[in-house]
Design brief:
- The chain has 189 residues and is mainly α.
- The chain has helices spanning 9-23, 30-37, 41-48, 51-74, 80-92, 102-110, 116-142, 151-170, 175-187.
- The protein has a single domain, classed as Tetracycline Repressor, domain 2 (Orthogonal Bundle), CATH 1.10.357.
- It is built from nine helices and no strands.
- The longest helix has 27 residues, at 116-142.
- It starts with 8 loop residues before the first helix and ends with a helix.
Length: 189
Amino acid sequence: MGRPAKFEPAAAVGKAVDVFWRQGYGATSPQGLADQLGIGKGSLYNTFESKRNLFSLALGAYTARRAAELAGMLEGPGPVRPRLRAVVEEMTGAGEHRRGCLVVNAIAELADADESVPAAGNALFDRMEEAFRAAVTAGRSTGELTGPQPPGDAASSLLATVVGTSVLVRAGGTTPRVRRIIDAAVDAL
């Protein structure tokens, strides 16, 4: 019988989110991952079975966190437009960091090699699009948002803005360009 883990697996998954988000899957070695998590390589394998399995858990944790953040930011009273702008900025990492979105990065890196990655991405994208649709519908009902697109189309456009802008942020896109894109998308609502 092996020794009990001397670390909290859920905390290790949380740290792994950050490691994979910064470095990507391919550039993260099992030993480097174990070192950054502060655990032994044997503990990594005993607890998570593989780097790939830990990545899957990290992607799931990131997706759940982002979906909850999105819902929390869009709920509540007051004008919808500033909340939508804040969500788009947050989801793309505009001005905050140069990482983009972990899900978008993972899809770009691994979509052809691992079908579970785009599946996880599409699950998050579906939740994002639905939250955007609900927010646009709420903004239309109060007369705040008066754009010509049906709410579902506007939501799809916002999702495309988040995904595309996330790639620009990851590529080191300039803040003025990113701000112009975000402003144009939100102002069109």
